[in-house]
C-alpha cells in the first residue's frame, strides 16, 4: 500500500465516523466534549453553524450518525448523539449576540426562495450575512415546511421550531406566506439573480385503484395532508378505530397523532415484514410503547364500504420471498383475506415530488421520474440561475439532508452571482492540532468509560396520550447528559504517526488495547488486511500506512475500532505518535461563527 | 488526563483452547519508561502463554529487584507472583518449585540482578537444573539507578553519560552452557517473531531454560555509541535461524529444506523446528553452540536464536528423587512420618 496521505482532509474526516456519516458533516465529537464541559451555548453554536436547527434535529433527526458511531462497533450501542444535541439546545443561554451580523448595506443581489422549509431557510441563513436580498415564498401561513406540517408537536414543540426558524427570519428578508408560487416563468421574469427551489415532496401517495377508495373517500386521508391539517388545527379529531397504512416514519407520526386525537384503537398495517419497514427503529418502538400494534405482511385488497360508510379494510396475507439475486417479492400465503374493522384510514405509503408550477418550457430539464436534472454537487439545474435542494432535489429524505443541500446550494448561488464557476468550490476548513499538555496529560478526556447507553426518560403515557402537543421525551438531565457525553470516543482526536521519529520499539503495539497497530512487511491492501494482528475485515474503514521504516517494514493501523485513548502516543518514547484534534468544517458560503 | 488502559478489547480477538483471549493474560499497565524493551518482553510472555493455552493460575512469576523485576506485575495478572530480594530470585524459585512441582515457573531477572548481585545464585540454579524459564531482560545498565554500566555492558560501549565501559562483559549464555543449562537462547525485545516461539519452547522444556533477551533501556542506554541500543542491535544482529514451535497434537505442515533444518522433540511431545542459517550448527552440541557464539562475537555481531538444547535432560526433582506430588497434596502422615521413621534415618547416618 502507498503511505496514507494525511494531508488530504478527507482521510481523517472519514475516521470521524459520525461526522462523516452526517450529511451536513456536523463536528459531533467537538460539541459532545463541549456538552461534557457544560459549555452548552458553545456546543449549540457549533451545531447551529453546521446544521441550522439543533433544537429541532436534537428531537427529530434521522440520526445517520448513530449507526456509524465507532462506539457501536466497540460495544453494543452507539453514543446517543441526537439526544445530546438536544441537551445543548435545551440548556444554552441567549445566543442572539452570537448570531452573524447582517450588513445594512445589501450587495445588490436578489434571490427568490420557493418554500420555507429547512433547505430554503439554510440557504437564507448562509446568504443573508453576505448582504443578499432574499425573498421567501410559502403556501403555509408560517415558515418551517415539513418540520412544522408533518412532525407532530408531541415530538417537536412548536416553541423550539419557532425559535430556530425565527433566528433566520430575523436576519431580515421579504416573506410571502400564504402565497403559492404557481409559475416558475413568472419568477424568472422578475429581476432575481438566482432562484432556489426548496418546495419539498408535497404529494402523498394514494391507492387510487383499490376497490372502495372512491366510496369511502370521506374516511380515507393522505397521511402527510392529514398531519398538516392537524398541525394547522384544521382537523381536531379522528374516529375511534383507525388503520394506518405504511411502514415509514410518516406512518409512525400518523398513528401516534391519531392516538392523541380520538383514536383509541389504532393499528399500523404494513405490506413488508417488520424488520424491513422504513421507519427508524426508535420510532417503531415509540409507537408500540403507545399501544399501537404493527401488523406486518398484510397487503391491502380493498376498502370495505357499507351503506356509503367505510367499515373496514380487507388484506391479503403475504410472506417475503427472496430470489437468487436477493430481490424481495411479497408472495401470498394463500390464506383467506383478513378483515380489519375501522372508522378511518390514514394512507402513509410514501411521498412524491410534484412540480405542477414549473412550466414545461421554463428551461428546467426533468428526468424520466419527473425529477429535475441537477448537478449533484452544485445543485444547479439546467437553467443556470435555478438551484434545487431538500426533498425537491433528489426525492424525499430528511431535515439534515435538506440542510446539507441548502449549504451547498448557497455556495453555488454565491459563486454564480459572483460570476465564478459553480463547480470550482472552496476547500473545506480544516485544522489539526496536537492535544499534548504534558506527561500523561491530554487536553481531552481520554479515559474510556464502560457506561452503557443512557435511556431518554419519557412523560407518563396516559397524560402523553391526552395532549397532542405535550412533548413525550423529557430529554437528558445534566448528570445523564454528562455520562452519555463521556461515552464518546473522541474520534476526531487523531492518531498521527511520524515515521521519521519511530525507533520500532513496539511500545505502541504492546499497549494498544484494541490491537490496531502493526509493524509489518508492506503488501497490497487485501493481503495486508489479512496479515494484521487482528484481521481488518471492515473494509469501510481505512488502514493508515506509514512510509518505510528503518527495518524495511511499515506501520499499518486499522482505524476500525481504535478507541482514540492516546496510549500509543503516551507510550511512545520519541513522540512518533501524537494525538491531534482534527477539525473539519464543510465548505459554506460564509464562515459564520467558527471556532 | 488519565493513564488507564481501557477495558475494551478488539471484538474479533482470537480465543485459545481455554476460550480465553489475550486479555486474560494481561497484567497491570506498565509504569516503566515509554519505549522500554522490557514491555515488549512482557507482551511476548503474554502472547506465548495465550498461544500455549496455559491456565493462568498454573503459573508462578518470580523476580528479584530492578526494572526487569518489576515487569511480572505487567503480565499474567491472574497468576501467582513473588517479587523477592535483589539477586535472590533463583533461591525463591527453587524453594517454590520444590514445594510445588506442578506449576510453571517464570523467573524474571535483569543484568544487574543476575550478573552482579545474583551471580552466585544464577550459577547454582543453572547447575541444579531447576525446571523453570529464566528470563534475563538485559539492557547493559542499571536503569533504576540512573544508568550505570552493568556487568553485561560490552567493552567500549558508552551509555548516555558518555564514558566507555572498561570491563569485560559477562555473557550469561556462554556461562549457562558451561554450567550445564539444557536450554539456552538469546533474543531481542524488538523481534517478537523470534522471541515468542523461544518463550513457548522454553516453557515447554522440562529443565532449566535461559533466554537472555537484549532489551534496550530507552532512557539511559539507547544512544548510538551503546551496543545495547535498538539501532546497534538491529544492525549487528545475527540469528542461528528461524525457530518454529509446534505444540504437541498439532501437525507439522511447513516444508523445510533438508540439511538446514533441525527438529527437536520435547518431553511433552511438542516439537521445536529450527530452520538454520548455518548447516554446521548443531544445537545439541555445547561445543558447536559456543563456537557459533564466539565466531559471531569476533565479527562484532550478536548471535540470537536457539543456541543450545538438550531435550533429554533430568530436572532437579529427578536428580534428587523427590516425591512426585506437590507438598500441599501430601497428608499429615506422609509429611510427619513419626519418630520411628526419624530413628530409622538417624540410624542410617551413624
In words, what does this structure look like?
The complex is a heterodimer of chains A (595) and B (350). Chain A is of the alpha/beta class. Among the domains of chain A are: 100-202 and 353-417, FAD/NAD(P)-binding domain, CATH 3.50.50.60; 204-350, FAD/NAD(P)-binding domain, CATH 3.50.50; 493-585, Alpha-Beta Plaits. In chain A, the strands form seven sheets. In chain A, strands 3-2-1-4-16 form a five-stranded parallel β-sheet, with helices on one face. Chain A has a five-stranded parallel β-sheet with strand order 6-14-7-8-9. In chain A, helix 9 links the parallel strand 1 (110-114) and strand 2 (133-137). Chain A is globular, with a radius of gyration of 26 Å. Chain B has 350 residues and is an alpha/beta fold. Chain B has one domain (22-320): Rossmann fold, CATH 3.40.50.970. Chain B has helices at residues 37-51, 67-70, 89-99, 111-115, 119-127, 172-178, 192-204, 230-236, 286-298, 316-320, 332-335, 339-349; strands at 59-63, 80-83, 104-110, 132-138, 141-142, 148-149, 183-188, 208-214, 237-239, 241-246, 261-265, 271-276, 302-309. In chain B, the strands form three sheets. Chain B has an eight-stranded mixed β-sheet with strand order 2-1-3-4-8-7-13-9, with helices on both faces. A three-stranded antiparallel β-sheet of chain B has the order 10-12-11. In chain B, strands 5-6 form a two-stranded antiparallel sheet. In chain B, helix 1 (37-51) packs across helix 7 and helix 3 packs parallel to helix 5 (119-127). The mean pLDDT of chain B is 92. At the A-B interface, strand 19 and helix 20 of A face helix 1 and helix 8 of B.
